[in-house]
Amino acid sequence: MRVRFWGARGSLATPGPTTVRYGGNTSCVEITTPGGALIIIDCGTGIRELGQHLVATRPAPLGGHVLISHTHWDHIQGIPFFAPFFASSNTWDLYAPKGVRQSLRDALEGQMQYSYFPVQLDELGAEIRYHELVEGTFRIADVTIRTRYLNHPALTFGYRLETEDAAVVYASDHEPHSRHLAGGSGEIGGEDLQHCRFLGGADLVIHDAQYTADEYPQKIGWGHSTVEYALALCRAAGVKKVALTHHDPSRSDDAIDRIVTKARAELQAGASAMQILAATEGLALSIKGEGQLKRRVEHNGSAISDASALGNPLVLIAVTDRSAADTLLDAAHADQIPVVETRSADALLRAIVEKQPSLVVLEHNMDSSDALELSSKIRTLQAARDVPVVVVADAEDRKGGMAAGVTDWLIRPFSSAYARTRLRAWLLRTAARWARAPLPPDEEQRLATLHSLGILDTPEEQRFDRLTRLAAGILRVPVALVSLVDRERQWFKSAHGVEVRQTPRESSFCAHAVAARELLVVPDALTDNRFADNPQVSGSSRVRFYAGCPLFVGPSCVGTLCVLDVRPRHLSTEQVDLLRDMAALVERELQQSVAAHPSVG
Ligand SMILES: [Zn+2]
Ligand SMILES: [Zn+2]
Fold first, then answer.
1. Between the CA of residue 345 and those of 196, 320, 328, 338, 357, what are the distances in Å?
2. How far is the CA of 532 from the centre of ligand 2 (A)?
């Protein structure tokens, strides 16, 4: 395979005197297969120059295949400037991840609306065929292409291209699943291990390396790798050559030189034969393998018998608890994800082989055969080596689950909204950023104290409303609540700034403060892995900021005085003290309820 870089910059095109050598254009790689097929990966601004080159050097009509990793701007912005899309005799195939809500065509059309660009997508002369992909394998000419979801805020694919004797992987816009790996050391497990296998033995890996390990703490959650992570995974994967790419816009040529020199010295010191370079605009590489791949493909039929990437996701559910199964069905239905239910362990194993699902959900004690045993059996099936296996249970058995190849646990009870968030994350191999609060150890005693107050579902009272009004005014936030955490809900004795009187416990921020029995401040829920996908944050309430101070009655923590905002914010130490003072006043009012109901001990 011949590989040529036309753009290696990340995020934003950055022309100028400090980026002359590595180039300022955003992502675009041209690959020519041994059989002569043209494959382009990503359409950043670099594709404009490639288009000019193709028009000048190849006979018409021009055609080829364009693989788009994702539709972030720096990977599609060159499309309206790619000359071969304008000639009516040309035919092009475009491939990209199938969106959860939006088609590829709609996504591309968006950037060519009249307010942004004078030519509409419909007016491009060439015939353009759109292919929406899921995880799996498909063929273009003499190349087998495998897709794998990367860890990025948008739906993003890594592409692995294999011919008979060489493999090239493009993995740009990917953040370590485990943050401890950002420094380049530590055990590689879970999804990072799967990523490592995806890179396995490749002759060339073109990998995201936007940040250094030193910069990473300020860039957590932005969806990019560090140089150290890229090199550690490639090394563990036995990769021959690594091209670091998606260079940060602020990275000068000299800074890239320093990164490469340092990395080479470290590899040499570690006696590694892996070659490393920084992707450079105009750089052409000829990639030839040593023939081992052919043997591997022959030995490992799954390399080409995976579910086709052009197919659809499918979830297999083997859950006998009707209410849990129905909740899962509702959740899948909401995202139009097809589900097949099986009723026995044998039927499940058969269905896995026949249908090659994208996700399997089991139940602990299903059909009296242990879920862990069943998971181990599933892992022995060639068709299910990589498929996520999730177990529905009342409690988690992390150690046993790991040994049995369980990917994750879904703990009962759960709502359809919660299951939907988790399903989506498992299918897309991303983390679900919604943690439900654990139950406090003294839960029953705590609930008994709360119920004995006789305060739940009573009318509003000035003595509490006065305090929430004060809290909102003093801290300058739109919402303040006296929130009491009941068995399955939080109920507001006083609510300043919102109409609702109660919300489910599983989406409650206060339940976290109650479980921890201490003040909880969430400066920006959207960047907090416990809350970003919580429906209070992602839904119409748009909560971004939360601060809640626990309220105690005797030894029991019954709820919080909390303040919320739709903007991220920080509280000063003085403001935190004020919140505590006001919470003490709320506690005093609750004590009066105790006086009225002396059974509380
Ligand atoms: Zn990017
Ligand atoms: Zn991106």
1. 31, 11, 19, 20, 15
2. 18
Between CA 191 and CA 177 the distance in angstroms is 6
With a cut of 60, say whether residue 474 has pLDDT above it: yes
Q: How far is the CA of 27 from the centre of ligand 1 (A)?
A: 7
The DSSP code for 226 is: B
Alpha helices in 40-174 (DSSP H): 46-57, 104-110
Q: What is the pLDDT of residues 106-144, one digit of tens each?
A: 888 888 887 777 778 777 889 999 888 888 889 999 999
Identify which of 178-182, 401-405, 487-491 has the greatest average pLDDT.
487-491
Q: Confidence class of residue 368 from pLDDT cuts 50, 70 and 90?
A: low
Q: Closest-lying ligand to the alpha carbon of 150?
A: 2
What is the tens place of the pLDDT at every residue in 325-351?
A: 999 999 988 877 889 999 888 999 999
- Alpha-carbon distance of 430 to 221, in angstroms, equals 12
Ligand nearest to the CA of 7: 1
> Which pLDDT score, from 0 to 100, does residue 322 have?
92
**Ligand 1 geometric centre to CA of 172 (Å):** 7
Query: Closest ligand to 208 CA?
Result: 1
Ligand 1 ion local residues (Cβ < 5 A) = 74, 173
219-228: average pLDDT: 93
Ion ligand 2 neighbours, Cβ < 5 Å: 72, 173
State the average pLDDT over residues 241-270. 96
Mean pLDDT of the chain: 90
Ligand nearest to the CA of 12: 1
Ligand nearest the Cα atom of residue 172: 1
Q: Please list, residue by residue across 243-267, b when 16 or more beta carbons sit within 10 angstroms of its beta carbon and e when fewer do.
A: bbbbbbbebbbeebeebbeebeeeb
Residue 10 CA to ligand 2 centre (angstroms): 8
Residue 5, beta-bridge partner list: 29
Mean pLDDT of 25-45: 97
CB 91 within 8 A of CB 61: yes
Q: What is the Å distance from ligand 1's center to 70 Cα?
A: 8
* Measured torsion, CA atoms of residues 185, 186, 188, 190, in degrees rounded to the nearest 10: -130
Q: How much distance in Å is there from the Cα of 43 to the middle of ligand 1? A: 11
Residues 171, 211 contacting (CB under 8 angstroms) = no
Q: How far apart are CA 363 and CA 267, in angstroms?
A: 46
Is the Cβ–Cβ distance between 7 and 51 less than 8 Å? Answer: no
Are 362 and 374 contacting, i.e. CB atoms less than 8 angstroms apart? yes
Q: Pick the ligand that lies closest to the CA of residue 153.
A: 2
Instruction: Report CA(372)–ligand 1 centroid distance (Å).
Output: 39
DSSP state at residue 329: H
- Does the reported pTM lie above 0.85? no
pLDDT tens column, 258-272: 999 999 999 999 889
First to last CA, the chain: 77
Q: Find the 154 Cα to ligand 2 centroid distance in Å.
A: 7
| Closest residue by Cα to residue 318 from 358, 345, 352, 356 | 345
